[in-house]
Amino acid sequence: MACMIYQGKTSLASSCAYDLGANLFTINGPEIIGQYHGESEQTLYDVFTSAKQAAPAVIFIDELDAIAPARKDGGEELSLRMVATLLKLMDEIGRNDRVILIAATNRLESIDRALLRPGRFDQEIEIGVPSPGQRLDILHHLLSGVHHSLTSEEVESLAFATHGFVGADLAALCNEAALSALRRYISVKESSTQLLGDHDTNAEKTNIQEIDGLWGYEVSSLSSSLSKLTMSMEDHCWTNRGDIIESSEPDDKKDELLLLVTKDDFEQAKMKVRPSAMREVMLELPMVRWEDVGGQARIKKQLIEAIQLPQKCPDAFERLGIRPPRGLLMIGPPGCSKTLMARAVASEAKMNFLAVKGPELFSKWVGDSEKAVRSLFAKAKDNAPAILFFDEIDGLAVTRGHGSNGISVADRVLSQLLQEMDGLDQKIGVTVIAATNRPDKIDIALLRPGRFDRLLDVQPPDETDREDIFRIHTRKIPCSHDVNLNELARLTEGYTGADIKLVCREAAVAALDENFDIPEVAIVHFKSAIDRVSPSDMQFYQELAARFRRLVDDTDKATTMGIHTETAI
Fold first, then answer.
1. CATH code for residues 129-192+253-279
2. Cα separation, 520 vs 478, whole angstroms
3. Helix (H, G, I), strand (E, B) or coil at 25
4. How far apart are CA 132 and CA 140, in angstroms?
5. Which residues contact 234 (CB under 8 A, 6 or more apart)?
6. Which residues, at least 6 apart from 51, have a Cβ–Cβ distance to it below 8 Å?
7. Which of 22, 148, 274, 332 gives a 20 to 30 Å CA spacing to 139?
8. 283-399+408-457 — its CATH code?
9. Percent of the chain's residues with pLDDT above 90
10. What would the CATH number be for the domain defined by 463-532?
11. Domain AAA+ ATPase: where (predicted)?
């Protein structure tokens, strides 16, 4: 019997062997490759032979793609020999040999297809990114031997906040949090004993090994890091003593308190440890709040209803049979906070945010563009709950049929995008938001129910919105008493949020040009900046949006009457 696992691998295979009471033989793909002809094949043969002799046994091949890559166009001689040898050895395993073969990979598409034939790797087991509940179980296990001060509620909150973390990532997070506590310990201890004085190196090593025991880590894994950290601290001296050092607690008690891993240590660790599922993409949890977005109350309300409320009150939506939209399309002139609002709703709903510009997905290689779209959606699913944001979607989802033969790269990419959106389910936890200022270029098939269900028409800011935007962008600018935000809002008719941000910056620059030591920015500087910054061309984009809305309305009416337009699916 053989099975292949791609994600969540080594510990599961080890547990399987332990539960079966079988001997475990491990093959690490990259390490088995020898420098002499026939050496790698012989090593593989020896492991299989030893496993049969020690039956019952489990053979675990880690990173299978390193020794059995797909044989394309001949391939390298060693790869061909290794694949042939592995196939032969697998075929020789009989039912009475009592040997189970387990392999692991995170690159399933790179495995030679011959290995997946029935009788070889009979089963494929995909282990996805852990759910919040699974992450909570993993954290409880990891923290059981760690000296920490986290409450049950804080551990649960940490589990929900670590989107995309696998077991190894959570272990790295705990290790980094422990290092953060150590840095605090060294800072306070060395400030109290004056680091520039003499110190006993051997005593330091002993103390660090004692710390390992306190935290529940192996000496080899943490002590080496801490020793290097201690050595690097010799060039620094802290003069401020912590409250713990000044207290009357015994030294042992103070050390124990200093080495306690706290919630703040985990917050700092989260800023350094990047989960595996996010490493190949620019994925983040944005730190943007609704108060950072000026105006646009109507659009904010729609985003909250469509995304934020379903995340906060899923039971209520399920009870009433309300299905949140899979996708939202934001149309409007440039600089009207479309991207900022998408980031804000992700932050407020505590969802991961994956942003990509439409044209970035195109590749000159055949099939790579479609693969990029598939990979993007797969990453979003792995890091759910997540918002997948397509900026400039007009560069990706153009109206079909413009290619010379009707099947251009753009047509194939659009078809792949439609297929991926059709595959989204409410339980997956991925919402797609797209933004464009050229809706006339978008294929209307994207607006079919189940794709971009909701159209958000982002208008330029009115006077009240502009005053709000000025208030946001002048928060960190010292303004004189003569600066009236309402007056500035009246003077900037037709300006977008991006234009107003530029006005505020130019006003500060104008003040510096007048006097480098000037304490405040005056109204005269703002008026000078308004004269220099021209408003964006709103009319062109507003006319495009109006025509697009009419097209959408006509398409909806035609669909209702049973009439199918050329571009509708």
1. 1.10.8.60
2. 5
3. strand
4. 12
5. 195
6. 23, 25, 57, 58, 59, 99
7. 22
8. 3.40.50.300
9. 20
10. 1.10.8.60
11. 8-131, 324-462
- Rounded distance, CA 350 to CA 347, Å? 5
At residue 342 the predicted structure's pLDDT band, cuts being 50, 70 and 90, is very high
> Which residues, listed in sequence order, are joined to residue 456 by a DSSP beta bridge?
330
* pLDDT exceeds cutoff 60 at 209: no
482 pLDDT above the threshold of 90: yes
Q: Which pair of tokens denotes residue 377?
A: 């959606």
**8-115 and 283-399+408-457: identical CATH topology:** yes
Q: Give the pLDDT band (50/70/90) at residue 298.
A: very high
Evaluate the CA torsion angle 217, 218, 219, 225 in order and state its sign.
negative
Q: Residue 538 carries which side chain, given as an amino acid letter?
A: M
| Token code pair at residue 84 | 């042939």
Give 425's contacts (C-beta < 8 A, 6+ positions apart): none
The gap from C-alpha 432 to its chain's centroid, in whole angstroms, comes to 15
| Mean pLDDT for the stretch of residues 544-561 | 68
The helix or strand, by DSSP H or E, that contains position 125, with its residue range, turns out to be strand 123-125
- Among all chains, which residue has been given the structure tokens 């061909």? 80
Could you tell me which of 421, 425, 367, 368 has the C-alpha nearest to residue 397? 421
Statement: residue 566 has pLDDT above 90:
no
Q: Which two tokens stand for residue 247?
A: 């207290």
Exposed, middle or buried by CB within 10 Å (0-12, 13-18, 19+), for 101? buried
Nearest to 492 by CA among 536, 459, 451: 536
Distance of alpha carbon 25 from alpha carbon 17, whole angstroms: 9
Q: Which of left, alpha, beta for 564 (phi over 0: left; psi -120 to 50: alpha)?
A: beta
DSSP for 348-380, written as a single string:
HTT-EEEEEEGGGG--SSTTHHHHHHHHHHHHH
Domain ranges of the chain: 8-115, 129-192+253-279, 283-399+408-457, 463-532
Residue 167 to residues 136, 142, 214, 384, Cα–Cα distance (Å): 10, 9, 22, 16
Which are the contacts of 144, defined by CB distance < 8 A and separation ≥ 6? 216
